[in-house]
Amino acid sequence: MTTRKEFLVKTGMLTAGVVLLPSFSIPPKNPKKNLGVQLYTFREEMAADAVGTLKKIAALGIKQIESARSAEGLYYGLKPKEMKGICEDLGMTLRSGHVALDADWEKTMDLAQESGQEYLICSSLPSNGQTADNYKAVAEAFNKAGEECKRRNIKFGYHNHEYEFESENGEVFYDILLNNTQPDLVYMELDLGWVVVAGKDPLDYFERYQGRFPLWHLKDMDMEKKESTEFGKGGLDIPLMLKHKKQSGLKYIFIEQEEYSSTPFESMEHNMKFMKNL
């Protein structure tokens, strides 16, 4: 099974540039209102039949959609307004998208405006080296991208993997991004699974950088294999994370699972039941 990181490398997205893509609290009367999915979870299914797959996703009770860059384009071969309309007809909102901060950045923002989505999330760092200077330069580029998005009423953000939690001279690279980006311009989408795999505690980040994480990638992780698994089977204490959603500034949760016990739909059905039982 190809992991998302391997997919980005194979398609050149990890080396070609930064990839793009929101504050959430689950309303007590409707805990699924702001619960969504990152469509990379259904990457093969979306490539084969985007509309049919979205119908199956809606049937699971998912309300928020975050797209991922694919071989068929940012919207899986659909036009931005077309995908927006399909999601709305199914009772879902195309809320966010993972894209690249590259030579097509202007076009990417134009398409996002057409789709009506709220967030553009950069999902991977340019491969210019794991150095403090590179992360400071990236932070500057993120602030600029955030300004450009803000003028278009779009929120710009960044999604982490595990490598951002490496350090240089005792300074964690992810902290450099947080310390050198403007909170009103750069919204962090915290992938909780990669945080714990990196040996860090998401609650520590919620405490030190309160309100900086309006978006989550909720991903349980097999700590031995260092790959995603169904909720409750890995090393992420999901109920504990949710108790601290206010500190995080959480607005939307996007479930992402890259590896499955059987099929992505069966895994997502398990995950949705897990969340409902909370």
From TrEMBL:
InterPro entries in alphabetical order: IolE/XylAMocC-like (IPR050312), Xyl_isomerase-like_sf (IPR036237), Xyl_isomerase-like_TIM-brl (IPR013022)
Domain Xylose isomerase-like TIM barrel: start-end pairs: 56-277
Molecular functions (GO terms): isomerase activity
Pfam families in UniProt: AP_endonuc_2
Domain of life: Bacteria
Keywords: Isomerase
Protein name (Swiss-Prot/TrEMBL): Sugar phosphate isomerase/epimerase
Organism encoding this protein: Arenibacter aquaticus
